[in-house]
Structure formats: structure tokens, C-alpha cells
Amino acid sequence: MTKLHPTIERVTARVIEKSKDSRKAYLDLIQREADNRPDRSQVSCSNLAHAFAGALEDQEALKTNKGPNIGVVTAYNDMLSAHQPYGRYPERLKIYAREVGATAQVAGGTPAMCDGVTQGETGMELSLFSRDAIAMATGVALSHAMYDGMLLLGICDKIVPGLLIGALRFGHLPSVFVPSGPMPSGISNSEKQKTRQLYAEGKATRQELLDSELGSYHSPGTCTFYGTANSNQMMMELMGLHIPGAAFIQPGTKLRQALDREAVHRVASMTQDGNDYRPLGHCVDEKAIINAMVGLLATGGSTNHAIHIPAFARAAGVQVDWTDLSELSSAVPLLARVYPNGSGDVNHFHDAGGMGFVVRELVDAGLAHGDVIGVGQKRGMDEYGQEPGLDGDALVWRDVGPSGDDTMLKGAADPFQPDGGMRLVEGNLGRACFKSSAVAKERWTVEAPCRVFQTQKDVVAAFKAGELDRDVVVVVRFQGPKANGMPELHSLTPPLAVLQDRGYKVALVTDGRMSGASGKVPAAIHCSPEALGGGPLSLLQDGDVVKVCAETGELSTSADLSARTPAEDPAPDQGTGRELFAMFRQLADEAEKGGSAMLATAGL
């Protein structure tokens, strides 16, 4: 096996050491759960009758305890294009289970909201905390203790992290994530981006903008840009939680169905009563978490995962932070440029070699752990460094070969840039993330007077009024988890990009989130501590000179903040169900820990 890069080895060792107590407590928990797993033949007949009453043709197999029973947790809904294909999955999964003497039951459903629908709207303030709701819904689904394994049906932004957090609390069970794949490519990304900017400048009509967007998002399947949803799929591959190569196979194809069948067969073969027991809690260890972080960096993935990775790592007793992510970034080269960091989308990425190419390059270069357990037919990452295909009706894995498009995908020996492009910036304004892989290097440093806002709508209004036509650091505060649920500030990208294109030096500083498709404007995001409660951003005033520098890792102001009084905390808004999430806002921890109320109160 290739020797690990010294930085990967050092960070892994540090994560193992600082996670020593919490990881042991987690492993002890799932061992107790495994030891206490009820023998269904000894469970009350009334309980069993309730569980089996709706099982129809599987009722006899369940009654006689014929084989493993697989719990399916689904995030299906019709509104979310990526999840629309899941509507017909349950019946198919049940058929695949019967092929290997198992049964499958839908254990429960979870919420699945689309950030693309709620961008810039009040519903986005529920988005981050929907992850906690999804995790809890997963817990409710699995609490019936009738299952020997799990199939998790989810793809998009908060849904995969939420499913993983919930499933990890039942980590004595084996689990496989089952994606449904991306929609076919639509109009070119450059054409879509051009229309968005023209609309921001008032040079395109709303109808022209809608027609452009429909040309891009047009059918069932995951959106094809490399945002949070597709970064989720990348991470599941590098953690070994997919059937190898499952991430980017389109819905409705024979290969997609073969991969779905394999997922059911594999989870049935990995149960506690078999010879290849692979509990989820053992698969998701420190090395798997490091692999997720490495993959995020190597592919220029979504900045949202700087919040999600610490959260789901905690659920497995693993402690990671932005220092770990930034240090890994110094050693992990950028191997992929996928829109918005390149011209091609995830379909083009897959055609060029995709995840098989990325995994092979990282493992062979000692940049990722090749000995994570995984759920493939063989333990470890070997199959994940190949690509799936069909030989007749049989599912096979083949060598992926060289990159099919070196404008999109390069090897570790000749990367797009030598580092992973996710940098920690810190100083007297706190700690924040800067996605340098999305920003031209000449824009890595911006030092200018700031203009302070409390909503993204106020930023857009100031832009339209010409008030930002200068070198400026736009500060948008009171957007953190405790303030309003930390919405993505997607509406900021077009106007700030226009200012930058006009020749001004522009940067964004915020305690809110930006999308995995946030674009080319330098941004210090997820600022921790957040402004609410007196964080440093609450002390800034218009005109204070702020410096953001990815080169030196600086986020600071030259203003003397010591004698200032924090700006008044805004009152929480109601409507669109936001008042129902008041408890989550009050109890949430900081973004660097995952921005979770549930994990904070659970003491994880």
C-alpha cells in the first residue's frame, strides 16, 4: 500500500488522538446496541403483528424470521428533482431483497427541502436546521428495532448529512446510501451565468431568466452543477458508503438499476448474523472522515461541508475542525474543475473519469486512506478507484484509465493547483472559511472600507442604488445559526460579481452560508463566533477597513473594537414556520462545530 503523505498522516493521527474519548464512548454505545438487539422470535407477538401487518407478500418471511429485514429510510418527494425518482424505489428494493432471501420495509420518511427553491426566500431559514429534523426523523424510523440493516435514500444538501447523523446513532447496523443520479445536462453553464448577471444589471427580463433556469433544471435527477448535493455524493464514495461508482449514474438506466440491486444485496450480506458484518459505526471512523475532507478539497466541493463534516463526524465520536480542514488543504491538490469552478458539469466530470479517477489518484498518491472498510464486495477502496459497468446484465468494475478531459480532471502529479483551495482565515473578526479554489489568485487579498448590512435584500438594494460602486468589503451579519438559522446568501453572488467585473476590489464577510455554487467573489463565510450575542462582526461600523487574505489566512479590521458596544441583536422573525424552529436557534452551537442544536444538547 502507498505510504501516506506526511500531512495526511499527521492530521489523521491528531484527529484520532483528540477523538480518543468520544470515539470510545461511541463504539461502546453501538456495541451495547448490538448486544441488546432484540431477537424478533422473542419479541411480543402483538408488537410483531403491528410491524408485519402491512407487509403483504413478505408477511410469511417476516413471521418465520426467514432472513434479514432491511429498513428503508427515504427522503422522497416530488418537488425535489433529485429525489423524485425515489417514488418508485420501495417496490423495486423489496424485489431485490427477496432475490437474496431478505425482506425490506420502508421504515420511515424524512423531510427533504430544496435550497434551490428557497434561495433568497424566508424558507431558507429552516434549511440548516432541517438537517437536525432529518436526523431525528431517521431516529424515529429506526427506533422500531425491527431491522437488521439500513438503506438510506437521499442526495441533496442537508439530507445526506442528516440521514448519516441519524443512522450513526444506530451504527450497529450495516448501511448503504442509495443515490438516484443526476439529470442530463441542459444549457451551458456559461450561458446560464451570463443571463443571471444580465438580470442582476436589469438587462434581461424575468421571463428570459426563467427560461434560462428551466433550460438548466429541466428533469428528474440531481442538479448538474457541483454544489452541495453532488459534493455529498462524492463524500459518500470516498467514505465507502455507496456501492462503488454509484454517485453520478443517471436515473432510469440499466446501470442505475444494477447499482440499486447491488446496494440491497450488499446490505443484506453485511448483517450481524452473517460472515461479513460491517456495522456503519465501524465504517465511519477517523480515516473515513479524513477521506471525506480530502475529497472535498481535491474536487473543489461545497463550502457547506465545512459545517456538515464536523457535525456528522461528531455523531460518530470523531472530532474535526477548520484547522484540520485547512491543514489538509495545504497538501491535497485540486484535481477537478467542475462548474461553478469550471465549464463542465457533473455529467461531463463522470464521462471524463469521475469518482473512479479521483479515488484512484488520491489513494495511489497517499493522499487518502485506502483501507477504510467500505461496503463494496471487497473491503477497502480498490473498487472505488474503478468505474462500474455492465457485462450483459452483470455488474462489473473496470479500470478507469486516464482523464478523458484534462480541462476538467487532472492527475495528482499534474493538478490544477497544488492545494485544495479551502482556507481558514482568522483574526480579530473571528474564524471563517475562504474557498480559494473558486477565486482567481489575484483576488485572494482584499483590503477596503466595509459596508455593513443585516440582510441580503439590503445589499441588493444598495447595489441597485449605486452605493457599492467602489472598492468595498460587504459585511452581512446576524446570519448565523442562532440569529436566523444560517441561510445561504445566494442572492449576493450576482451583484457582487457585477461589481468585481466592473474592476472594483470586492469581498464578502458574513456569519451566514454561501452555496456550493457560490462563484468567483472572494468571501470569508461561516464567521465564528457569529454576530448575535456580541460576536466581533456586531462591532463593525460602516467605513471600518477590513482585510480578507487567503494568502496569509487573515480576517481582521484595523478599527479599535475594544470600546464599542455591539449592535442590537435583531428580533427573530416569524412566518413560514420559522417560529417552530426557535428551540433550534436558541440551542445551536457555532458553525465550526456544525451549527447543530441537536448535537449540542446531546453532549456529542
Automatic annotation (TrEMBL):
Domain Dihydroxy-acid/6-phosphogluconate dehydratase N-terminal: 68-378
Classification via NCBIfam families: edd
Full protein name: Phosphogluconate dehydratase
Physiological role: Catalyzes the dehydration of 6-phospho-D-gluconate to 2-dehydro-3-deoxy-6-phospho-D-gluconate.
Region (Disordered): 557-576
Similarity comment: Belongs to the IlvD/Edd family.
Entries under PANTHER family matching the protein: D-XYLONATE DEHYDRATASE, PHOSPHOGLUCONATE DEHYDRATASE
Gene Ontology MF annotations: phosphogluconate dehydratase activity
EC code: 4.2.1.12
Domain Dihydroxy-acid/6-phosphogluconate dehydratase C-terminal: 409-594
Taxonomic lineage from the root: Bacteria, Pseudomonadati, Pseudomonadota, Alphaproteobacteria, Sphingomonadales
Keyword Nucleus on entry: no
Alphabetical list of InterPro entries matching this protein: 6-phosphgluc_deHydtase, Dihydro-acid_dehy_C, DiOHA_6PGluconate_deHydtase_CS, ILV_EDD_C, ILV_EDD_N, IlvD/EDD_N
Keyword S-adenosyl-L-methionine part of the UniProt annotation: no
Binding site for [4Fe-4S] cluster: 156, 223
Gene name per UniProt: edd
Record-linked Gene3D superfamilies: IlvD/EDD C-terminal domain-like
Pathway as given in its UniProt record: Carbohydrate metabolism; Entner-Doudoroff pathway
Pfam families given in the database record: ILV_EDD_C, ILVD_EDD_N
Reactions listed under catalytic activity: 6-phospho-D-gluconate = 2-dehydro-3-deoxy-6-phospho-D-gluconate + H2O
Reported cofactor(s): [4Fe-4S] cluster
Domain of life of the source: Bacteria
